[in-house]
Design a protein that fits this description.
- With 236 residues, the chain is of the alpha+beta class.
- It folds into 2 domains: 1-67 and 81-101, Aminopeptidase, CATH 3.40.630; 112-236, no CATH class.
- It contains 8 helices and 7 strands.
- The protein has helices at residues 18-32, 41-49, 93-108, 121-130, 144-148, 156-161, 182-208, 219-226; strands at 5-9, 53-58, 63-72, 76-84, 113-118, 133-135, 170-174.
- Strands 1-2-3-4-5-7-6 form a 7-stranded mixed sheet, sandwiched between helices.
- Helix 3 links the parallel strand 4 (76-84) and strand 5.
- The chain is globular and about 45 Å long.
- This is GNAT family N-acetyltransferase.
- InterPro entries: Acyl_CoA_acyltransferase.
């Protein structure tokens, strides 16, 4: 990561970045052609004021990146809205933001399960280095407010057509009560990265073709589980 970039917990003095952040979130989602739950500048500003966000900026105050915390049912935490300014992508700042927001989540909610949904292999790699595992959607929060946040996503119809059991995103989870070490999850991701890449490509082909009714669309989810040692049940 570049030496002139600071990554820290956001506060009320950072609210002037909120509009820039939400504009980039929307632009990035459109450029990728994939979804992201839309958030207002007011919502992002509130997360900053609550100390439930991480921001990155240069020494001269230029915005670099952002991520925030959401909580569900008192048991689940999501590190959401990870976004990096185009000028600073591939600089390593995304990894540092993820690590900082993960540590903040563990500090604030030590017993909560931390999860995320992503369409990006790069984010999956970062998550695996923190100890996240790919999981089925059934292992995520079932709070209706969480899933309602997906309504602004371009893939929402796909999610609902699959009864919220599958979509373009891959689900990943860190369970503080039952998890592998970051070294294990990182190593396994590196070993299976080509498999994950093919499965995500398969999802694109299956779910991207809305004119065909594809039976067995849950196979990518099951295969993903298989390649992460979760064939029959959680380890004891």
């Amino acid at each position: 990561m570049e030496q002139n970039i600071t990554v820290r917990v956001a506060h009320s003095g950072d609210v002037h970045y909120a509009k820039t952040i939400t504009d980039e979130m929307e632009a990035s989602a459109k450029a990728r052609g994939t979804g992201i739950a839309k958030r207002s500048p007011e919502y992002i500003a509130n997360k900053m004021e609550e100390g439930k966000a991480v921001i990155a900026h240069t020494k001269d105050g230029s915005w670099v990146g952002f991520c925030y915390i959401e909580t569900w049912e008192g048991e689940y935490v999501a590190n959401s809205g990870l976004i990096v300014s185009p000028a600073f992508r591939k600089s390593g700042v995304a990894k540092e933001i993820k690590r900082t927001i993960f540590n903040l989540s563990r500090q604030k909610y030590p017993n909560a399960k931390i999860f995320g949904l992503t369409t990006g292999l790069a984010v999956m790699k970062i998550n695996s280095e923190l100890g996240y595992e790919p999981v089925t959607y059934s292992e995520l929060t079932q709070d209706e407010k969480f899933w309602a946040g997906c309504r602004s996503c371009v893939n929402y119809d796909i999610l609902m057509s699959k009864d919220r059991k599958n979509c373009m995103c891959t689900a990943m989870l860190y369970d503080p009560a039952d998890h592998y070490t970051p070294e294990e999850t990182k190593e396994n991701f590196e070993q299976k990265s080509k498999v994950f890449e093919r499965l995500m490509s398969l999802k694109q082909r299956i779910f991207g073709n809305k004119e065909k009714e594809v039976r067995g669309a849950a196979k990518p989810k099951s295969l993903l589980h298989y390649f992460f040692w979760r064939v029959a049940a959680k380890r004891v």
